Amino acid sequence: MSISLVGSGAGAADDLNPAEGWGEVPEADRPLWSRYMVDHCPWFPGVTVMNFIAGGVMNGGTRAPKIWKDTAADLHRAGFTPMQYYLLAELLSGARKNGDLDESAHGHLFEQWFQGSPTFFRLAAEAWKPWLERLERAESPRRALTHILSPGNVPPLGTLIYKTGEPTRVVSD
User: Fold this and answer.
1) What is the DSSP secondary-structure string of 14-83?
2) Phi and psi of 120, rounded to 5°?
3) How many Cα atoms within 13 Å fall on the side-chain side of residue 133?
4) What is the pLDDT of residues 94-119, one digit of tens each?
5) How far apart are CA 149 and CA 94, in angstroms?
């Protein structure tokens, strides 16, 4: 069974067929992308449709709106795994709650800035490649995000104070 959702943003019908529309996203990753996008939607389809989607993806299904599949495909092409997406979305949600995100300063990192209730947003996949590169260099995800959001203005990690009387040294990356 397949469902069409009309009015998904582009004005055309949105095929919720679980097997179609994923592009290059590996089949094994699709349930994870679907599940994590329930928590961090790139577009909110409304309460009724969301209840239908959430019930299926919580049990490993992949029935998702086309915009979710397109977002997953874009992020996959940029090098993201579903877990990296979820981690970044969690960090960004926290940064937004703390007032560390500003649309004028950080809007270029998003295809769709935070909006709605519940809140949804869509990452500009290519803009987040430097964050992924920092993770590959074993930088903590939070520190990598700080570098992306505050280029050239990253606070130090701490200070090193010597008992031998050597000068205090600022430790940073």
Assistant:
1) EE--TTSS-TTS-GGGHHHHHHHHHHS-SS---HHHHHHHHHHHTTT-----HHHHHHHHHHHHHT--HH
2) -135, 155
3) 8
4) 999 999 999 999 999 999 999 988 89
5) 13
Side chain identity, residue 152:
G
- The rounded distance, in Å, linking the Cα atoms of 154 and 142 is 12
* Angstrom distance (rounded) from CA 69 to CA 75: 10
Please report, as a single letter, which amino acid is at residue 72: A
Exposed/middle/buried for residue 162 (C-beta within 10 Å: 0-12, 13-18, 19+): exposed
Element (H, E) at 147: helix 141-149
Task: For residue 103, give the nearest of 118, 79, 130, 121 by alpha carbon.
Answer: 121
**pTM of the predicted structure, to 2 decimals:** 0.84
Q: For 122-141, how does the pLDDT look when each residue is reduced to its tens digit (9 = 90+)?
A: 999 999 999 999 999 999 99
